[in-house]
Amino acid sequence: MANSSTEKQSTNDFIRGLWEENPVFVQVLGMCPVLAVSNTATNALAMGLATAFVLMMSSTLVSSLRSFIPKQVRIASFILIIATFVTVTEYIIQAISIELHKALGAFISLIVVNCVILGRSEAFASKNTIGRAFLDAAGMGAGFTFALLCLGAVREILGSGSLFGVPVLGTHFEPWVVMILPSGGFFTLAGWLLFFNWRKEKKKIQEKRAKAALAEV
Predict the structure, then answer these.
(1) Where are the beta strands (DSSP E) in 121-195?
(2) Terminus-to-terminus CA distance in the chain, angstroms?
(3) 9 contacts 129 by C-beta, under 8 angstroms
(4) Running along the chain, 217 residues long, what does each successive block of 10 average in pLDDT?
(5) How many CB atoms within 10 Å of residue 108?
(6) Residues paired with 167 in a beta bridge
(7) Contact 23/137 with Cβ under 8 angstroms?
(8) How far is CA 1 from CA 31, 131, 142, in A?
(9) What is the pLDDT of residue 217?
(10) Helix 74-96 crosses helix 115-123 at what angle (to 10 degrees)?
């Protein structure tokens, strides 16, 4: 029974960040990179994976050092840990592709101040075991990457008629240039937020109907 309870808790730690508490569509965090680099699916995926890597590594290290970091300097310590992994990530991206590094620009360095990462370090990693901290970070990172991909895919398809640089709408499609501009990011984000809020309200209504049906029985 204990193993079953532990496995369920671990699964919940991961799924919570991926869907139920998605950092973008539910908590509306990290809007700067979400709107700035989601003009193509490639940029969105790269930024999502970079953020997820920093999130998982920093949360794991914060959790492992939680007993040794004085409370008075915990925020400064967390930022130092996050900045270290951001530097590693930036060098990795630069080694893989100079063009991608230029496309992401200063937003790679700005991962340091992404409130999703610092928030999970403070609210979860510093108070839980290494395993739970890693799964929570993995879920949040996957959720952040998923959200960026949702925006990047829509903006690239409608704005360029392609997906990951591959044409998907044919030569007769007239690209919506506004979608790859900053305003297109706001429009796309608003559409996805509307969709997720609609699903949330629909789920609440279904739960109320289910409870009402049980009460009648």
Answers:
(1) 162-163, 166-167
(2) 31
(3) no
(4) 58 79 87 89 94 95 93 92 95 92 88 90 91 92 94 94 89 88 91 90 87 78
(5) 24
(6) 162
(7) no
(8) 41, 19, 29
(9) 65
(10) 140
